[in-house]
Amino acid sequence: EYAEFLHCKSKKFTDFDEVRQEIEAETDRVTGTNKGISPVPINLRVYSPHVLNLTLIDLPGITKVPVGDQPQDIEYQIKDMILQFISRESSLILAVTPANMDLANSDALKMAKEVDPQGLRTIGVITKLDLMDEGTDARDVLENKLLPLRRGYIGVVNRSQKDIDGKKDIRAALAAERKFFLSHPAYRHMADRMGTPHLQKVLNQQLTNHIRETLPSLRSKLQSQLLSLEKEVEEYKNFRPDDPTRKTKALLQMVQQFGVDFEKRIEGSGDQVDTLELSGGARINRIFHERFPFELVKMEFDEKDLRREISYAIKNIHGVRQVTGLFTPDLAFEAIVKKQVVKLKEPCLKCVDLVIQELINTVRQCT
């Protein structure tokens, strides 16, 4: 019997106490030593003639209140992590609930119901049957009468923390569990359908059946993927990298793609929308509609001076003649307006520079 970890592939662990220590050490390495969590699984493979062929993903229990270094939204983080695994149609859900807690309040069953409303993939496991109050039992639950599941419930009695600390042997624990079910009046009649060894067998059988059921859809999915890949391969079969026509075609395609990308970034119909900052056309839009008007508004002129300038311009054009007439001479109008328009030159050039810079950035992003 030996075990292997994915993070230290070269080493075979034959002492299972070492396996335990390595799990703790790797957990501390990934999450820190103060009850942190991580969605990255620790992969452990056990080779033994005494275990059945099963893949088990052990997920954390749902924490309601953060402790140690856990973030404030720990409950939602763990729920998201659990949903990632149990939402997959190909996985079976092992919903573990302690017997000394009301089944209606079970977080495990509640989450399983969300992703598997028909209960087709859910197997119920009831633990801590030995810790129930005297005079109470979980018979109705185990007989699948209270909250029925298609695949039913199995009761188990695990080692207590005291047993674990005292290094109680698994064989002794299994024997004690068997004795508990055979001697308990409420569970005696179904002792053969209870306990960890039966749970192992059921899981192995259920997994085999589940694989058999999900295999056809998986097969057809793979076949369609294979067909699309073969179609793609067909296009590259006669591919000759040195063929000049290929190079021309590739270059044209790249130029075309560049054009499309550039247009998308400017027009604003890109596939990837940036949610952190403005980019491309939106920035240019802001330059025109926010920066440029702001620069224009900043420009100041004194109306008194302007009136004086207009008066001088009119008088200078008339020279020695007496200033009469209803209309401002064209030359005076032009002289004054030109002087004002020149003031617009600087903000306009500034605007152009900003837009050019933005276009250069966009080109850089497209390339």
TrEMBL record:
Protein name (record): dynamin GTPase
Source organism (scientific name): Pelecanus crispus (Dalmatian pelican)
GO BP terms: receptor internalization; synaptic vesicle budding from presynaptic endocytic zone membrane
Any one of the GO CC terms: microtubule
UniProt keyword terms in alphabetical order: Endocytosis, GTP-binding, Hydrolase, Microtubule, Motor protein, Nucleotide-binding
Enzyme nomenclature, EC number: 3.6.5.5
SMART domains on file: DYNc
Superkingdom of the organism of origin: Eukaryota
Dynamin-type G domain sequence ranges: 1-216
DNA repair keyword on record: no
InterPro entries per UniProt: Dynamin, Dynamin_GTPase, Dynamin_N, Dynamin_stalk, G_DYNAMIN_dom, P-loop_NTPase
GO MF, any single term: GTP binding
